[in-house]
Amino acid sequence: MYQRTLYFVLCVCLLLAPLAIYPVFLMKMLCFALFACAFNLLLGYVGLLSFGHAAFFGLAAYVTGHVLKVLELPTIVGLLGGTLAAGLLGLAVGLLAIRRQGIYFAMITLALAQMVYFFFLQADFTGGENGLQGVPRGSFLGLDLQDDLNLYYFVLAICIGGFVLVYRTVHSPFGQVLKAIRENEPRAISLGYEVDRYKLLAFVLSASLAGLAGALKSVVLQLASLSDAHWHASGEVVLMTLLGGMGTMLGPVVGAGTVVALQNYLASSPVGVWLPAPVVLGAIFVVCVLAFRRGFIGELQALAKKSFNLS
Amino acid sequence: MNFARKAGYAAVLGALAAGAAQAEISDGAVKIGVLTDMSGTYSDLAGPGVVAAAEMAIADMGGKVAGKPIVMLSADHQNKADIAANKAREWGDVEKVDAYVDLVTTSTALAVMEIAKQTHKVVLISGAGSSRITNEDCNPTAIHWTYDTYALAKGTGSAMVKEGGKTWFFLTADYAFGQNLQKDVTAVVEANGGQVLGAVKHPFPATDFSSFILQAQSSGAQVIGLANAGADTTNAIKAANEFGVVQSGQKLAGLLVFISDVHSLGLPVAQGLTLTTGFYWDYDDKTRAWSKRFFEKTGKMPTMVQAGVYSSLMHYFKAIEATGSDDGPTVVKQMKATPVEDFFARHGKIREDGRMVHDMYLAEVKKPAESKQPWDYYKILRVIPGDEAYLPLSESKCPLVKKS
Amino acid sequence: MDFLNIPLPAILAQLVVGLINGSFYALLSLGLAIIFGLLNIINFAHGAQYMLGAFVAWFGVQYLGVNYWAALILVPLTVGAFGMLLERTLLSRLYREDHLYGLLLTFGLALIIEGVFVQLYGVSGKPYATPESLRGALNLGFMFLPKYRAWVIVASLVVCLGSWLIIERTKLGAYLRAGTENSQLLQAFGVNVPLMITLTYGFGVALAAFAGVLAAPIFQVSPKMGSDLIIVVFAVVVIGGMGSILGSIVTGLGLGLVEGLTKVIWPQASGTVIFVIMAIVLLIRPAGLFGKEK
User: Fold this and answer.
1) Membrane-spanning residues where (chain A) (predicted)?
2) Which of B34, B37, B80 best tests the A interface by mutation, with the highest count of A CBs <10 A?
């Protein structure tokens, strides 16, 4: 029950947020929150650590940018195109990567994503190092998305949609099987589940949603660039999920918000001059792994559970 | 300092005398936003030095322009277009920044120009190099100050061909800036009767250049053109040195070499390199005087990018003094109407496409024995008049240029 | 794109250069494989430690007057000791957790180490002079091979094979192999396994630092020198199959050669060829060329 209240309060906050906070910054946060949720679907609920999710995020950003700028199709088509492309890439990468587990899985996804990155670097449609710039935002059902506020509510609606999709997936029978695979893969196999299929489906779903996030980002910031696809971006999304709490619904959202806000702060404050962002992010990584493995939300939940038990 | 202050007073008085019809400084302050590479590949040639140069410019104005305080914001764009665009948008919407300064890579410059186009803010570009900035992608309120790929091509390219380097082979960083540079140089080489034998594109950034150097060697070209920048250039030069490129009779043309690159390579490796630069600290008394102040502040001699930032800001501030306004199009109009003549720019003027045309220098890196003091690196071979160095307006693809 | 148009000397020259790169891959993947074998973690900080090796060598010259040859011995010891400190204070807390945490921890460490060096020294790199005795080049007929690069091949081969012999032929190596198979049993036999783990990690890190010193005169000593290299080395390790010592050496050298060849035939693909090979190997032999299916 309290969960529903929490979500409700959160939604109200998000609806009112642009009154107080710069909407473009909020939209960026939302995109990364969706990205982290997509990633968490894989890490938190299937136990697969992908170190190459930036490839999907980046590909979708490029495809969307290309569809909107060069083909001049409507915004919604661009978003769908980007998501679809990321899903297809997810299928290809997933087919290879799920052949191994654990650390191998992480390294394979990392290496494949690096390959995709090199491809982007050289392909014509990405604009190489310059990136794809001046992507038009267009309109949706007569709503002019050039206006920051309009776009904010558009993005918010899509992100909530994505979040609900992740929620439904996790709480469906399919999600239960995924958790079973995470906890004990051999047992899931012996129960007759075709584990690889489940993993692949989860991977494709996660890649598509990561793609949707990337597609939105290219509409919001009106550009797609190589940094979207760089392995640092893959590392960042891992950090967001870890910091917020992997395997929790709200964790990635909180983590993404924290990391994006922190990066923003370090990029412009005097602190950032002697304390560069990578060092801070690295330190957070180390602290999280050593002392804080459940993340913000995970720790809170544990605390809540403990205090309920006590009372 | 004194001069600047006096000029400031004069301008204020002038503005008052003229009745100061519309002395409008929005929000009671002139805000400049320095966006540069503070920690990445190009932080030595721009980065903290650019911030220092901007601080010097503000201090020299006495912290005020047209009676209103000057506020500087700075941020690291990490050479990423998205970070630059995000920051520029936020600065414009939230902080009410009036001008964006520096922008080290072409991608960040184009991204910020895109935003400035919608908001009519001033963009003073110093670090980015592509000639696209004032050619096909030109923008009414963007001014490209220090150099561009066309001027580099024209300076180094034609000089090398005239010295007998008729056949060329390129090592090109495989991204837009490198390709742009290669294209510009190729045009110059061919126009001067030279010939391009081939090119190899290397990934950006690349660490090992040995195999690319080998290909350049086996091409048999007289000149190996390095169409890259920063660490890529220094690594390529080191590899060339190791594989005996210069000893076996081929010449290296560093198409974009900054004094910070030469400093990090050291003269024994860098000696003999021909290059084009927009500024050299040891050119005359005016450059020395300013550079000495810069050196005292930062411990390094300025690169052309850093000196260019100071120069562009002073010109910008003076235009605000003169018009009493910080409205983008108004200030840019005034800037374009005023010639640029300071320690940095000789015979400088800003054209309608936004290109600040000024004299460029063809230089050669000294031999270790010729260097008398630290940072004594260049021998100026020739002054290239601005009109010769930059793309003639008649060939421009910029829509702002009215063709007669 | 015509293969026949490429003169033989050019191909030979590229193969030699590929062998040099392969030497670095071999040294780095060997260190990764040794660490992985016993600790079961992937050392993401390997690239940063390689960079650290180059930087410590540079400090040596700059501030302490330590020359190249001394650095070749002292730097791996110093950086290896630093690695052991990291293992004792940080990594050792994670052995009971999922191995992925080791990967994440070392990723964080890599970010910190690189970030600090970027902050202190910028990114354009510091020059490191080639030792006097190795300046100049050998004329091989088809190319000028700088003496220093020839030395890199020799030095890394010696170190790689030496490490392999230690692991395969000595008692210490036998313990190591036993620990890889079953560390609890080894502990029961009275071997101090935690100490062995620390030493092993230190040894792996020392190999990376050794590679860093070797690399210093070739590339600039720069904070970013290891960060992209490490991903290529990951791919090398996946191709070779982790845990196989000889496999990682052979794969490292072999892939260097393949990469060299790609640079002549289709230079743009030279960045991706190793990843493509990785994908193919995964399809055919998921455990890697020399790996055992577990």
Assistant:
1) 6-25, 32-56, 76-96, 103-120, 151-170, 200-225, 237-261, 273-292
2) B80
